[in-house]
Specification:
Elements: H1 3-17, H2 20-34, E1 41-50, E2 53-67, E3 73-84, E4 95-99, H3 108-115, E5 118-120, E6 136-138, E7 148-153, E8 161-162, H4 174-191, E9 199-205, H5 206-221, E10 228-234, H6 249-254, H7 256-265, H8 276-297, H9 303-317, H10 321-326, H11 333-339, E11 347-348, E12 356-357, H12 371-390, H13 408-411, H14 431-440, E13 445-451, H15 459-466, E14 476-481, H16 491-509
Parallel strand pairs: 4-7, 4-9, 9-10, 10-13, 13-14
Antiparallel strand pairs: 1-2, 2-3, 3-7, 3-8, 5-6, 11-12
Length: about 500
């Protein structure tokens, strides 16, 4: 190729690169990235009885678009919304926004476990539910008689996705997730004309972490007051729910009453107390008044006092004094789940310590899996997928992410300040956000529901967390149940939880 031809060819390429045709094609490519179709929604009409009242309601399973500062859709938030079809004149129908935790959990647990119009039935006694088909039952006890329900799947779970030029990781973080959920609520309320409806948040596990942060954003930034918050298995200050950190004294205290309840349930407390609640009061007192000062003293504790604390801790946990001694008076919740029934060759569940599993390695210090989660997860997902297709007419080629997007967990961001700004890592804590929201709105109250057999978010940690952080006692109501993290898999607890939630909503909307 001669020099003249090379120069001419290069000139032609330069002209083409700057030509209107290529510029138009480049713009078209950029537009195609931003192009977002209209939201997909599946709408069905239903009629059922809830708490003895016949309700006609609309079920809307579909997307709501949250937009960026330029007004472009940045995320599709998929929800299952159940709204009363016909309102009486002047009726101010409450709406409750419901999400699960994780982070990275879709809403199928609360949806199909207790609060949706139908539910999956699993053995109430913590038995294994077996293989499909699983019973999918009407749920006439649920709270659709007193509130509309919107079950929310955050980005990267269920059918929810980032849109256009935005990426999912923009929504995967403590602050980022809370902001997107608050913006979703503002959008949903606007699109559905519900600005003057009483508003409630209902979250489970990490959903309580999220709920506290969202409450602050709604109350402080968006001028959207809440009527109430329902927290199930709270996780606001993670210091009290990280039992696997050996030098975390707080978790060694907050877990003791749950270990006591678990040992009582499995018959490992000798002599056996007749009344669980009285026994747990004694366990709380021991953990606070005896064990905590002893752990604070450390190796300055005298031998006689150490022996006394060792034997008392052994009694309240059902473990041997020898094990407690080897643990240096620090019984970790994860190891407790393996140790309590070790002689029987069984590990107990962390999400619900009533469940047991026969693991392969009986010598391991910690359980390999979680007996409760392994037992019920298949039933919950099967029930939701069946319910979506056969009752809600959801027929979509998009994959329902439960579990979540495989990249979510590894990319989740707990950092609370921008990159480049000085930051000292600490335990996750949104209890301060809740305190702010409660101070801004003194009529706001929180219903705190805890399971006695929850080894992930212990009930004593809920008390410890909410009795400080400058939270007024009169704004918190505590309820307790004979189940675990998802106490509603236990039938008496499910019925009690629904009754308590209904009464709380009625209380917070009464004039």
């Amino acid at each position: 190729m001669n020099n003249k031809f090379c120069f001419a060819f290069a000139t032609l390429l330069l002209w083409l690169a700057s030509s209107p045709l290529l510029a138009a094609e480049k713009d078209a490519d950029e537009d195609s990235v931003k192009a977002v179709p209209e939201p997909t929604r599946f709408v069905t009409e239903h009629r059922a009885r809830f708490n003895g009242e016949t309700i006609e309601f609309t079920a809307t399973a579909g997307e709501t678009y949250v937009r960026d500062k330029d007004g472009e859709p940045k995320a599709s938030i998929f929800t299952f919304a159940y709204t009363k079809s016909k309102l009486a004149d002047g009726e101010a129908r409450p709406v409750t926004f419901v999400w699960n935790g994780g982070p990275g959990s879709a809403s199928l647990w609360l949806h199909m476990g207790t609060f949706g119009p139908k539910r999956v039935s699993v053995p109430s006694d913590a038995g294994y539910p077996g293989a499909p088909p699983y019973p999918i039952l009407d749920a006439p006890e649920t709270i659709l008689d007193v509130t509309d329900l919107v079950f929310v799947d955050p980005v990267g779970t269920g059918y929810s996705r980032a849109l256009g030029k935005h990426e999912s990781k923009e929504f995967w973080g403590l602050n980022e997730d809370a902001r997107s959920m608050a913006e979703f609520i503002q959008t949903w309320v606007t699109e559905n004309g519900r600005w003057n409806s009483p508003r409630f948040l209902l979250g489970e596990s990490y959903g309580t972490t999220r709920g506290a942060a969202v409450a602050k954003i709604l109350e402080d930034d968006l001028m959207m007051s809440l009527n109430g918050i329902i927290f199930i298995s709270q996780a606001l200050d993670y210091q009290g729910s990280t039992p696997y950190i050996r030098d975390n004294i707080i978790a060694h205290i907050t877990y003791v009453p749950t270990m006591s309840a678990t040992a009582w349930y499995h018959g490992k407390i000798q002599p056996m107390p007749e009344d669980l609640e009285t026994f747990l009061e004694q366990s709380r007192a021991f953990a606070t008044d005896e064990l905590m000062p002893a752990l604070f003293k450390g190796n300055s504790l005298d031998e006689a006092e150490r022996a006394r604390i060792r034997d008392r801790l052994a009694y309240f946990t059902g473990l041997s004094p020898e094990y407690v001694e080897r643990a240096n008076l620090r019984v970790q919740g994860t190891r407790f789940a393996k140790e309590l029934l070790r002689e029987d060759g069984l590990a107990i569940g962390r999400l619900d310590a009533r469940y047991v599993s026969d693991e392969i390695d009986d010598l391991d210090a910690d359980p390999e899996g979680d007996a409760a989660s392994l037992a019920v997860s298949s039933a919950f997902k099967a029930a939701l997928m069946d319910f979506m297709r056969n009752d809600l007419n959801v027929d979509w080629d998009r994959i329902y992410l439960a579990p979540a997007d495989e990249d979510l967990s590894g990319q989740w961001r707990y950092r609370t300040v921008p990159d480049g700004k000085s930051y000292e890592p600490m335990f996750v804590n949104t209890a301060r956000d809740l305190a702010t929201a409660l101070r801004i709105n003194p009529t706001l109250k929180v219903l705190m529901a805890s399971g006695y057999y929850d080894l992930v978010t212990p009930f004593f940690d809920a008390e410890y967390t909410l009795n400080r952080h400058d939270i007024r006692r009169e704004q918190i109501e505590y309820t307790y149940y004979g189940g675990g993290h998802m106490m509603y898999v236990n039938e008496p607890s499910r019925a009690q939880l629904l009754n308590d939630t209904r009464a709380f909503i009625q209380q917070q909307t009464a004039k």
